[in-house]
Prior knowledge:
Chain A is mainly alpha-helical.
Amino acid sequence: MRTNFRLASSAAILVCFFWCHNGAAQESHIGKLVGKAKRGKDLYQRYCVFCHGPHGDGTGESAPYLDPKPRDFTKAVFKCRSTPSGTLPLDSDLYDTISRGIHASGMPSWKPLLRQERADLVAYIKTFSSAFQEEKPGEPVPIPPEPPSSPESVQRGAELFQSMNCWSCHGKDGRGHGPSAATLTDSKGYPITPFDFTSGSRFKCGDSDREMFRDLVTGLDGTPMPSFATAMNSDQRWDVVHYIRTLNAPKKTRAEGKNESKGQ
Amino acid sequence: MAALKKIGMHLLVLGSILAAVQPAYSIPAFARKYGLPCSACHEAWPMLNNFGQTFKDNGYQLGNGRDAPIYQEPAYWPIMFRTTPQWHRENNNRQAVDSVPGNATSAQVEASVTTSGFDLAGVDMIAAGTLYNNISMFVQPFIGNSNFSLNQAWARLDNLAGSHWLNLKAGKFELDELISQERLLTLNNTGGVYYNYFFTPPGDRNSFSGIGFPQLGVELLGHSNNDHTRYSVAVVSSNNGGTGLPTNQTYDVYANFTKAFEAPWLGRQQFGAYGYFGEAPTFYQTSGGNPITGTGTGNRSFYRAGAYGHWYAGSKFDFYTFYMHGYDNVYLGNAVPSNQPFNLPAGAVGPVWNGGFVEGHYNPNPRFILTGRYELVRMSREANPAIRRDAGNLDTWTAGYRWYPIMSPRAGFAWIQEYSRIINTGAAPLSGKDDIRNSLLMGFDFDF
């Protein structure tokens, strides 16, 4: 009798462990918002499936016609993160990407969806990869206060742009046609174009100086853009940000600027 | 008897409006351009969801840096076609017919008349999209069974001064209606229209159909980034959307304001208010007794105003509520030229009425939607005291579903079934009893 009780208890604990563990992966947490994968599945079928595919592997019906290709969620590799290179993103990183969209790609801003709906989508997207059940997201990278831009800072940034070989992809004048540009591919082997800083186009992962700084730390996983977390210190990264701003600051609409200041 | 004749005329006008109402649309050209399915922008096409409404308010732009035509393949052509092969059955319980068929001199009697068979609703063509970043356009010719018309044609300057709050449109366009006549889910003869949008009381000479039909003019529209706050103001010619300046030279004003918020557990809740204030002529300059086109004069005022809401109860069920209050000047209401006040009936006043509808949608998945609507109009003051107090009252019930077995970023295909019934109080042409019409429709609705 006692053996049966022990067996039952162990089974219950085991079931509870797997249920809780799996259950956590079926949810997303963005501030006070709790997203549910079950609800997110319906939304995914409505809004996302034609590009990202029913299995989240980026092979939806529209995928062959899109450039760049839709993200393959099964790889759990994401460009826009606040976490170190090679780690999983925070739920809020995925939420921000859904809200902001990826400029110059087929991914629009889904801000017209409710906040709850976007949180539900994050929860569902995480179900495509077991990584979200097996690992924890990385710790967000620290972003120190931005020092004021100055001619000296810009000059130092220009020198770093050369010495760190940024120019080999982005070009000496930042136009995105460096000597390596034509050979670049993403992690799935698709050709990828370095960003043209002079275009005035919006950056993929956000336009603020803080976001540019963050991108230098985290890199854009799945692309040839590496992390400069160890190659540069914080002051140097701010210098590079200040230099890039001089190439051609992105033209933001008033509405976008207002939203950024509100932190939406 | 004169009152009955007026009611008959009213029915004729209403009938001609219904006959002219064209099918609503969705636009696969946009789906092709962006690789998105119909369901991204439509709760169930043609009904827009908030993402689609925001896309529309942004000037058919996603804002992802791929909106200008230069990013499209040269072969891309922003055009779509839509038509609805169908079978339908129409019944009118009290239609005036000759007692001896074929003999025009025989006495007229009221009889139930039924027609049925396979049919087509005409073909909608839409060319729409962007001419350049922040310049959008829309051209919609309509090929009817016996006519060709230009339903809409406009261009819009989007995001003026870099702001979502300033968008200027000019041309012939649908007024900013959150509950859109152009995106009605039902297409049948009786239930394919929001009656409140077109309503004028019995005997009224105001040919107003401004809220339901595209109008000619300019519009200033603005919205927040997520479209939760919207406004629009339009100034349109008092020509009821007719080209060639057919009526008169005055202008009407339409204004609309919408606000939305996110309710926990329920979803988006949206409400708004609108008003249409205009003038219509009571007589024309004449030549040899015949009206000269565009010379309408003796203008008298009218207005339509009210409020509406779009309420979600979870992700699968939502409903519209709509209210309208209407008023026409006494000369319009009695079809009397304003230079002939002595022809006004004794006790004549401007007609006043109230109306509204509730429309529910059950949308368990993007491929199916069930819809039902109840709409009514209640006269609160007749223009002519001789007319029975409830003449012009309407009650309509409509139910149907749309099933989309095919939904892709290339085309849309739906199977539809609908039933609708309308009761026009006191509108039978001879007896003055209630006129009741029933409509049953089923068929394919597709666009590509």
